[in-house]
Here is the input.
Amino acid sequence: MHILLFILSLIVLVTVGKCIHVSIRMQGIGSFETEKEDLLQRRAFLLEKVLTTPENLIKEMPSAVGPIFQNEWAMYSCSMLSAALVNMSHLYPETREESVVAIDSLIRIVMSKELRNYDAVRWGEDPLESLNGPNSHISYISILAWMIGGYKTLGGDSKYDSLWDSLCETMSRRFYDSPNFNLLTYPDGYVYVPDELVGIAALSIYARFHDGRYSDTVDYWIKNMKENWTDATGMIASLFPDMECKPGDFLYVLGSYSALICYYMTFVDVDYARELYDVLKTKFVKRSPFAGIREYWYKNSLLDFNIDAGPVIFNLSPSGTAFGIGPATYFEDWEIRNRFLKTAEIAGTTVIRKGKRHYLLADIALVGEAITLAMRTAVHW
Here is the structure.
């Protein structure tokens, strides 16, 4: 009996302590002005952790996911931090000069042999040494082109202009050469629509600087997705199994991918992004017992796992919830944003050390910290 009482008391004590901690950390959440110190401290943490050698950055990624995903997650850490830096330069202009220098360094890390190795291994050729070839490489080159677009948006110099031209020409050509105007992420694998869309977002940014060049590619991709790859929910497909998939075949629509699709679409077509966000709220937002994004809109899943969504518990998608903060922020849906950030605090637990702030989970998955900062600062570029 005494042991049982002790255990119950300990549970109550931990629960009360967690509630107090969450309440304290949520103070000031709700506007870019009141969150400024929090955001700048998270930015400082990520700059310290991510701006390192490619080898050290890869080592920061959890070894349990294997070397391929370690490289991939390192690349996503760079791309999401670069997006956060662009966002915060708009929100806090005094950070712009430092951010341009930092994004330059992030681009060079992503261009390193070490990071692009994940894509080279999958395709059997280097993505930057095969731009004239037919193979997709959309995962890698889309991210790199998008990061260069962010660099140029902040007034970065011309050092990457020739590469930017080549990346965007390659993506556009390969889209038109594809039978369904989408590209495989890896050989003999799935078409992951967020990978397609970050490429389309990169082309859309490029078009702003080059008199609309590749706008036809962007417009046709959206038209194609609306007409052929939208399911009954009104959400475009998250992925489809291969290049032989035809309109009308079963479409996979998942919360984690759908939230990311909504975010990337804000770079391409704001009105359509808003439509998709409305679908996301209607079909995928879960409000209790914790607010977040449902991984499956058509069923409940008590326990599931995949490498992109993470551990799905009571149908709540960790990465989907993090990605969902992006469109909620962009469309100033502060009520949903605050709910999602509260869930992030409950799961992640913020700590402050030497003027730098991060979730404890960043010690396990640094990429999640970078994603969350990019999403909670999402603004129009």
